[in-house]
């Protein structure tokens, strides 16, 4: 019986993919803003398949890859306002073959708000102590300010930013006694444009000697029961200048936690308490004027009274 001889041979391996994709279409821009743009382009084609795209941005003298999407679209962010940017795309297949670049698209982002607000005016100082001063001002002269930035100099030194606020007044603390400072304020709009510093030259303010405190605080527990108590606090301004706003601070030596305040509003972080005036009791006349507030608080173990108070950051005598 004749036997059949079967010859087995391996199937030939497929040739490696060496054909690059076609060039993608030139990007088209949409949804252009001050800092971003959406780009779309006609997809590339490939005999096996396009794996991904690489989007490049040329700005001034450098080129940067900004996206590697798998679809023919990308959103580019982080651009500068009013900047000129040129974009092009390269397609890649799974074997790493790259297409020739697409056509280039040049996009200029929107300029946005480049106009700063007008300068502030009427900067004045009050409530000057050995370590702090209240500054008030008006303005800006035109436009709307989203923020005010306060600058300070000492001696012949430069003006440096030391604080910011959305209000037209601020108490600057951390000053040294018997020292002359210069103050100026700038207005910033919502886009971050800053007005010129005013006044020029800066407002000169000389802090007082430390001397005797210009305020006294009387702290009295009016009633107490298991786990809670009520207290009244009276602030007296013994200094020569009226106060147009106040914050009284102290630190409890025990476990007390304030739950309710009347004639004031409070914050408490751990043992540190700060009580601030309401609109109707913000002023304390010079030379003996006073304001008072009360509160309810909880306690456990013991209820010792605080031993030190500060009014707008300045130490007061406890009476």
Quick tags:
mainly beta; single chain; nine-stranded mixed β-sheet
Summary, kept brief:
This protein has 319 residues and is an all-beta fold. The chain is built from no helices and 23 strands.
What does the model show?
This protein is mainly β. The chain has strands spanning 28-30, 37-40, 50-59, 62-67, 73-76, 84-93, 105-108, 121-126, 133-138, 147-154, 160-165, 169-172, 180-188, 198-206, 215-225, 228-237, 247-251, 257-262, 265-269, 272-276, 289-298, 309-311, 314-318. The protein has a 9-stranded mixed beta sheet, with no helix packed on it. A 4-stranded antiparallel beta sheet has the order 4-3-6-7, with no helix packed on it. It has a 4-stranded antiparallel beta sheet with strand order 11-10-13-14, with no helix packed on it. It is elongated and about 95 Å long. It starts with 27 loop residues before the first strand and ends with a strand.
- The count of helical stretches stands at 0
User: How does the overall form come out from the CA principal axes?
Assistant: elongated
| Overall number of strands | 23
End-to-end CA span:
128 Å
Q: Averaging pLDDT over every residue, what do you get?
A: 91
* Helical residue percent band: under 10%
Strand content: over 45%
One letter per element, helices H and strands E, the order comes to EEEEEEEEEEEEEEEEEEEEEEE
How would you characterize the largest beta sheet?
Answer: 9 strands, mixed
User: Which structural category fits the helices and strands?
Assistant: mainly beta
- What is the C-alpha radius of gyration, as a whole number of Å? 35 Å
Main-sheet strand order equals 18-21-16-15-23-22-17-20-19
**Could you state the oligomeric state of the chains shown?**
single chain
Poorly predicted residue ranges: 1-14
